[in-house]
Write a structure and sequence with these properties.
Elements (H helix, E strand, L loop, with lengths): L4 E3 L5 E5 L2 E5 L18 H30 L13 H6 L3 H30 L6 H9 L6 H11 L8 H13 L9 E2 L5 E4 L2 E4 L9 E6 L23 E7 L23 E6 L2 E7 L5 E4 L7 E4 L19 H26 L3 H9 L4 H29 L3 H6 L11 H9 L6 H30 L2
Parallel strand pairs: 7-8
Antiparallel strand pairs: 1-2, 2-3, 4-7, 5-6, 6-12, 8-11, 9-10, 9-12
Helix pairs in contact: 1-12, 3-7, 3-9, 3-11, 4-7, 7-9, 8-9, 9-12, 11-12
Length: 463
Amino acid sequence: MSSHITADGPGTPVADGPGGRGTPKNPAPDGRGGAKPSSGRTGPWIAAGFLLPSLLLLGALVVYPIVYSAYRSFFDASGSGFVGFDNYADVFSGDGLTAVKNTLVWVIVAPSVATAFGLLFAVLTERVRWGTAFKMVVFMPMAISMLAAGIIFGLVYQQDPDRGVANAVWTGVHDTFTDDSVFPGARPRPDAGLEKQGGAFTTEAPVEAGSPAGLPLVGIPPADVGDAGTAKEADKGSGGEVTGVVWNDFTKGGGGREGVIDPGEKALPGVKVEAVKDGKVVASAKTSGDGTYSLPKEAAGAQLRLPASNFAEPYNGVDWLGPSLVTPAIIASYIWMWAGFAMVLIAAGLAGIPRELLEAARMDGANEWQVFRKVTVPLLAPILGVVVVTLMINVLKIFDLVYIIAPSATQSDANVLALELYLSSFGGGGNQGYGSAISVVLLLLVVPMMIVNIRRLRKENSR
């Protein structure tokens, strides 16, 4: 078989043989018969061209605002006067200091409690048949916006028990174990022979058996005694008892006599009457349906006292949005929303734990609490760290819950840095230099958490 060599261009010998005309005499180094790829210098420029739009957006939306905020924080409200670090000093004084303290409370309490609830829900629902449905219910608040959640909990924390769910439950429990006052706001007539001692009323002179003691009261709304019977004079008693009557000394339309039971005047049933000697209660009784009462003969020579429990205002629950409880109340609403987020992430990590490790611990004699504390929690530590750090970053931005739930009277007590930034810059304060200083402080608080997350990601990628 013969072949001859031709020139396909200057200095390019080709073989005209079995491989067909034009087959290179010396194959390419890659062994595939093709030419070696070009190693030109256009690769970095192409990559830069693709990255340029993203870099421009990143610079315009992230880098520039950060740099400008840091620059603006050194100027006054008008932006023309250089004030140095005065804006930063204001952040840590007055309302700014309250916002810093509340923000630290949020960062410490809210993520840890939400993570604890998420861990509890994830572990307890792992083996139950309806666990998925329960997790769906717990996670459902995540679908609600902060605005809607703020409106919901603003109603929950209403002071009026007839409107606020929290106080409706609280007053229901309280009233179960505590007696209500029978006639709140009632008082004796000025010349009825009763003197006020604290919230109670005591007769000025001792009482004797056989001489009924009338105790007239006024200041009672007609609706409170509408179903009561008509008052009547008390019997003198036949065995040395001390008797008397308590009634509403008020006649509709006027014309009644003071200190005398007039026709149609209402009895006051259920009023507690005590006989007091030397500061000690020696006997007590409650008025019957016609307002009369009877005390044993030990009450003779004692002073009669109507305890303050008869007249105390009704219990209206807790002032959830007052100065002392407004921040814990708002944190509770945040936990209600974000405990489901923590539960879902922890449940995913829990599903990845090898069951062999748990069974081995049980076979070694560990009880369920020991398995949870010494096996489950350590294995979930990376997931728990992710949840806590994520929630910490999230609570540093908390704004709308506080703005919506806290009433104007106590909003300053519940203030946080993000809300202070808004109020000072756009909510009527008009001081964007101070607001920029707050934004820089928030950035500095977020940076350590970002570093923790970056180190964790690098550590996981290096495994």
